[in-house]
Amino acid sequence: MEENKKNLKPLAGMALNDLQGVTAKLGMPRFVAKQLAGWIYGKRVNSFDEMTNISKANRDKLAEEFCVGLYGPMQAATSADGTVKYLFDAGEGKAVESVFIPEEDRATLCISSQKGCRMNCYFCMTGRQGFHGNLTANQIINQVLSVPESEQLTNVVFMGMGEPLDNLENVLRVIDILTAEWGLAWSPKRITVSTVGLKPALKILAEQTSVHIAVSVHDADADERGQMMPIERAYPIKEVMEMLGKYDFAHQRRLSVEYIMWNWFNDDIRHAEKLRELLPNNHVRVNLIRYHYVPEVPKLRTSSDERMTYFRDYLNGKGITCTIRRSRGEDIAAACGQLAGRVKGGEKKPAEKKQKK
Fold first, then answer.
1. Domain assignment of residue 168, yes or no
2. pLDDT per residue over 264-296, tens digit each?
3. Which of 56, 67, 98, 198 places its Cα 20 to 30 Å from the Cα of 206?
4. pTM higher than 0.85 for the full model?
5. 97 noted as active-site residue
6. 65 carries an active-site annotation
7. Catalytic entry in 65, 67, 97, 181
């Protein structure tokens, strides 16, 4: 994050009504707020001087108390498969990571919502580093607006560092920015929020937004899941799925289950059947994920291709749409469960934005 010697408040991350409050406080016409939103979220500029349809006097007023608040990543690492992992300064000596995943017909950015995570899942690199604070709406939306591929993005997934629903207020703010007409004007179907199952916050997300929801199940056996994921003791996954079964996921909105597969632990037919029984209906999609090695958990190993295929075919045979997700970015520690927000070599070089075509 660029040094802010005047302790100026960032505008990026504010909703239109917040921007209207800023302009009213400074004695500016109400329409200036929408102009600000257009420059920040539409054109992604980071300087008031670039906002040419706002008077010089009003730009000077803004600069006295506020900054735009967009800043590029400190570091970038590119995988052999084209995946790019970006490291962003999160303040207080901490950093978070975002992952850009290019495909033929999609360009997805996986973004972080917290510095570390308090869910403490046994197998997750982020969870094992502890919790160091929530990201602000500015720090979350900045990942979307400041990666070099920002204007190419087709999808955003809240699947990076942290539990998004443990930072619900700021995640909802960012969803609003992404989907509002004055923001990026995206369809909510371009956004997926992943969660381990914080039931009260999940209910709010399901009712107040139309984004896709992905639930990290990983083991449908309650006792086994509790050993790997402490959240099971507070919000049993059976109750979470029963609640989600009351919402409409039969049409454009999607509910999916994420299921990491560990060799000879949760990858047999007994577990496949327990997973089938857990699903509230056949509209839920299941994504099988290879376990990506975490040095602190040397005993866990990913399932073989044969066992994953058998598990997938069993569920497909029962009428469940089940796919094996292709691993991306494992060679740069950018795959599922590997994000840690660690600065390499102490060098901080912001990546350059790609020019608009």
1. yes
2. 999 999 999 999 999 999 999 999 999 987 777
3. 98
4. yes
5. yes
6. no
7. 97
